[in-house]
Give the backbone structure.
Amino acid sequence: MLTVHHLGKSQSERIVWLCEELGIPYELKRYTRDPVTMLAPAEYKALHPIGAAPVITDGDLVLAESGAIVDYIMAKYGEGRLVLRSGDPDFAQFLYWFHFANGTLQAGMGRLMILNRLKLAENHQMLAATKGRVDRAFDLVDARVREAEYLAGDIFTTADIMVGFSLTTMRYFQPYDLQRCPNVVKYLGRIGRRAAYRRAMEKGDPGMALILN
């Protein structure tokens, strides 16, 4: 049985969402963050040497890293859904946005979160450069969803699942004002109307307010 070990308010929501979109059987095990440190509890850290979310188990397999987990689930259970093939004209877009999620957007927001916690001066060179990089990343997403319904084009794919966390729940940790990104707000409206997304968030983080604007 595929088991999703979900740490509240974390990238593991991507995996719960993916399973709901695919409609595959899975077991969900929820873990609560330490109320003081906001870090994963000891039992979650014990699942995998890296000690971070997400983690899945599937039989004897223990796998971490959200991108790797998405690829694994799609290869084993996806049956060709939610991905584009090499012959599709939007295949390169699909690949780009799938990897943009953790390669650029999430990484930039994570660095900005850490720098903000250091209480640096507003004009600190590194802080200013990182803010600028995050702004450019959001601007790029905004431009893409102005011209396309979803990140890979006309259809919803795993690229949307990967990027979705950074645009929504990650803003609990690193706030970002979307007033400058009206197309992202409209895009998140489309995401928020997906039944699978709503089911996933209610199962994984019941009662958590969704940041969709």
